[in-house]
Specification:
- This protein has about 300 residues and is mainly β.
- About 0% of the residues lie in helices and about 50% in strands.
- The strands form 6 sheets. Strands 5, 6, 7, 8 and 9 form a 5-stranded antiparallel beta sheet that branches.
C-alpha cells in the first residue's frame, strides 16, 4: 500500500480470522483508546455482518464499546492534540487526520505516506510539539541494521539520530511529550535488548535496564516514569521505573504486554495475551492503576463470523 496525501483510502482489508487487541494508545482527551483489532462489520447496512474490518479500532475507556476507525495500519500513535494518528502499514509510516471520535471517522484525503523510500519503517512516535515523527528503519544502512530516525512533517529531510549503529540496533522509540528525550530498545551483544534513553539528536545515551529482554518503553505523560515490557525467558510482564532507571517494579505478570498510559498518568491500559492459554480475558484489553492495583478487564470481544 503506497498512498500519497490526498488519494483515496486503501479500503477495508480482508482477513480469514478475527484478531484480538494489541498496541493500544490512549487518546489525549481520555475517553477513547486506539488499538489494533479485527472483527466482522456490516458494510451494506442490511443488519448482517459481511466482512472483516482489519486495522485500527476505537475502544471506549469506560464501557469497552468498540468502533472501527481505520481499515489499515498498526502501532497507532496519537499526536499531542489528538487530531491525527501515525500508523505503520505495509512497511511505511502514515499520518491521517481523525475527523471524529464518536462516530469514528477519518479524513480520507488526509492520508499521508511520510516514508517515501523502499526500506521498511516501524513504530512511529510524535514529538511533544507535534512537528516531528521518529520511527525505526534500516534505510540506507549497508548492513540492514535498524536505527531511529526523525522527520519533520511536510519536509523531506530524514535525520538519523542513531549513534554506534554497528554496535547494536535502536528500535521501538517513544518520544517524551514533556522534554526532548527518546526512550528506546537497543541491542547490545553482551547484555541483550535493553531500554536506553537519549536526546532527540542521539546524544547523552544512557542504559536504564540490564537484565532479561526489555521492549516497548513508554514515557508517562509527565515524563517522570517509564513503563516497559520485560521477558525473563519464561514469562512476559509489564514493569515501571523512574526515567533515570531507578525504582524498578513489576506491575503486571503472566503475559501482560502492549501497554499505554492514560493522559492523566493515573491508569495504564494493556493486553493480556498468551496463545497457549484458554482462559477468560485472554487477548482482551485490561486497565489497571499506575501502581499496578485494581486490574479490570475492559473489553469482552467475542468473534462473530461474517
Amino acid at each position: 500500500m503506497k498512498t500519497k496525501k490526498g488519494e483515496d483510502s486503501p479500503g477495508i482489508v480482508t482477513c480469514s480470522n478475527p484478531l484480538f487487541f494489541s498496541r493500544p494508545d490512549w487518546h489525549p482527551a481520555g475517553e477513547w483508546i486506539a488499538a489494533e483489532h479485527a472483527d466482522s462489520v456490516d458494510t451494506n447496512k442490511d443488519g448482517k455482518k459481511d466482512t472483516w474490518f482489519v486495522g485500527i479500532w476505537l475502544v471506549h475507556a469506560q464501557s469497552g464499546q468498540t468502533q472501527p476507525l481505520l481499515p489499515f495500519g498498526d502501532a497507532p500513535d496519537w499526536n499531542p492534540d489528538g487530531t491525527h494518528l501515525a500508523v505503520h502499514a505495509g512497511g511505511g509510516i502514515y499520518t491521517v487526520e481523525i475527523a471524529s471520535l464518536h462516530p469514528a471517522r477519518y479524513d480520507t484525503s488526509s492520508i499521508n505516506l511520510i516514508t517515501d523510500f523502499e526500506a521498511p519503517a516501524f513504530y512511529p512516535t510524535w514529538s511533544g510539539d507535534g512537528e516531528w515523527i521518529a520511527f525505526d528503519t534500516n534505510y540506507e544502512d549497508p548492513n540492514g541494521t535498524y536505527g531511529i530516525v526523525k522527520k519533520k512533517l511536510n519536509e523531506n529531510t530524514i535525520i538519523d539520530i542513531t549513534k554506534y549503529r554497528s554496535q547494536g540496533a535502536w528500535r521501538q522509540g517513544d518520544w517524551s511529550k514533556k522534554n526532548d528525550i527518546i526512550a528506546f530498545r537497543k541491542y547490545d551483544v553482551e547484555v541483550d535488548w535493553n531500554i536506553f534513553i537519549a536526546n532527540s539528536e542521539g546524544n547523552s545515551l544512557k542504559r536504564l535496564t540490564t537484565k532479561g529482554e526489555n521492549y516497548h518503553p513508554k514515557f508517562s505523560p509527565d515524563s517522570r516514569r517509564i513503563i516497559y515490557e520485560h521477558w525473563d525467558g519464561i514469562n512476559k510482564s509489564i514493569r515501571i521505573m523512574n526515567s533515570d532507571g531507578d525504582g524498578k517494579k513489576v506491575l503486571a505478570k503472566n503475559w501482560a504486554s502492549d501497554m499505554a498510559w492514560s493522559p492523566d498518568g493515573k491508569k495504564i491500559v494493556y493486553v493480556f495475551s498468551n496463545q497457549y492459554y484458554d482462559r477468560p480475558g485472554n487477548g482482551q484489553l485490561w486497565i489497571m492503576n499506575a501502581d499496578g492495583s485494581n486490574k479490570k478487564q475492559l473489553t469482552n470481544f467475542k468473534p462473530t463470523m461474517p
